[in-house]
Amino acid sequence: MVLSKDKKKKPISKAKKIVNGIATAIVLTIFALALFAMIYLLTQFVSGKEPDLFGHRFYFVLTDSMNPTLKPTDMILSKVIKDSNDIDYVKSLVSEGDIVTYVGYVGNSQERITHRVIKSDEHDDVFFYDEEKESWMLITKGDNNHRADSPIPISALDAVMVRKAAVVSALYNFISNKSGGLVLILIPIALILVPFIIRFIIVLKTPAKEELTEEEQKKRQEEIARKAVQDYIEEQKKKNNDTP
Fold first, then answer.
1. Comparing 39-48, 126-135, 214-223, 224-233, which segment has the lowest mean pLDDT?
2. Which of 138, 204, 223, 242 has its C-alpha lying 20 to 30 A from 61's C-alpha?
3. Statement: 56-164 belongs to CATH 2.120.10.30
4. Looking at residue 42, what is its pLDDT?
5. pLDDT at residue 84 above 50?
6. How far apart are CA 181 and CA 67, in angstroms?
7. Percent of the chain having pLDDT more than 90?
8. Rounded-to-integer distance, Cα 206 and Cα 203, Å
9. Where is 117: in which H helix or E strand?
10. Distance CA 227, CA 204 (A)
11. Among the listed residues 43, 94, 53, the one whose alpha carbon sits nearest the alpha carbon of residue 77
């Protein structure tokens, strides 16, 4: 006669273990890549270099000179022009209609400007050589501007736009305001605290196991045995009464 039986925990299926392992690996990989990118960019920034990652760089649009293509607070991802003095290299990256970022003068100060490359009626090609300045030049213009910019030397080129970084721009704008910054602080805290809170609730809801002394355990075993004998005797009496 079986007097007691322990409840067996349902084994976790092999497929579920594999899925959990893959999900964990993906999360850890994304976290590691993000951490690497952050450290890499921070190291470049501290060393005084223009931070770029894998030959690309983010630029933040500050003015409406490129409306409606690019609006203030937009962020763009651009390919860095590593050797802006090599005309063949620059020609392989930049062509008419491309949006480039270059270092130019705004008033008396040098600023980074992001405008579109255009071809003027005075030249047969986008690039032309200025003998007086002894440099290859090109002309840019803001989509929202009425006049073209003054010709710039190719050595002033920084990068050529690849695409708008809409997601990064939205995240940047979100965390730039107070509520977004607060959320950015609270999310990691929540990720740390939630598992502990869940575990605490589970512990509270789980009934505590009754701890018995050796004497109490002995008495309980005797009661169980006595009850088993009584049940057996009653069962035998019932069988005897039922027998004609």
1. 39-48
2. 138
3. no
4. 58
5. yes
6. 28
7. 31
8. 5
9. strand 109-118
10. 34
11. 53
Query: Rounded to whole angstroms, what are the CA distances from 8 to 14, 17, 177?
Result: 18, 19, 53
Q: Are 114 and 66 in contact (CB under 8 A)?
A: yes
Q: How confident is the model at residue 6 (pLDDT cuts 50, 70, 90)?
A: very low
Joined together, the tokens standing for residue 42 give: 């921070």
**Whether the Cβ atoms of residue 104 and residue 152 lie closer than 8 Å to each other:** yes
Q: In the chain, what are the domain boundaries? A: 16-51, 56-164, 166-204
Q: The tokens of 191 are what?
A: 């990720």
Dihedral sign from CA coordinates of 195, 196, 201, 206? positive
What is the secondary structure of 141-172 as a DSSP string? Answer: E-TT-SSPPPPEEGGGEEEEEEEE-HHHHHHH
> For the chain, give me the number of helices (H) and strands (E)?
5, 8
3-class secondary-structure state, position 114: strand
